[in-house]
Design goal:
coiled coil
Length: 135
């Protein structure tokens, strides 16, 4: 009876060992699958990170290029403003000259008209005298 009980216990232990081996195998299989899934996820995250870093570097390059273009445009703008200021000064000087020339021209025109009136008046007087003499 003791041998039967002992054999029963041995069989029971062997069944437990077989069950535990089976459970361990299933657990190892699941763990391997989980490791593979995590490795794949890690690879995807690494790829995403590399892409983001690449995009960030490209954006930095674009930002630097835009900053350089902006500085160049600002320099051009300053140069154009400087040129514009010089042109305004020149225009103001020329407007002053034009105003002086207009004033001079008006003065000469007035003198011319006065001289013309005097001569016209003189011609009229001489014409009148000539008519008197011819009569």
């Amino acid at each position: 009876m003791e041998t039967v009980s002992l054999e029963h216990q041995i069989q029971s232990v062997q069944r437990h060992i077989a069950f535990l081996k089976k459970e361990q195998m299933e657990l190892l299989h699941d763990l391997h699958l989980e490791i593979l899934r995590l490795q794949k996820h890690c690879s995807e995250l690494t790829h995403d990170l590399e892409m983001k870093e690449l995009e960030a570097r490209q954006q930095d390059v674009l930002d630097r290029e835009l900053e350089e273009k902006c500085r160049a445009m600002e320099a051009q703008l300053q140069e154009k403003e400087k040129d514009n200021l010089e042109l305004r000064k020149e225009l103001q000087h020329k407007e002053t000259l034009v105003a002086a020339l207009r004033s001079s021209l008006r003065s000469k025109e007035r003198r011319f008209l006065e001289e013309l009136k005097r001569r016209s008046h003189r011609v009229t007087i001489l014409d009148t005298e000539l008519q008197k003499q011819t009569e």
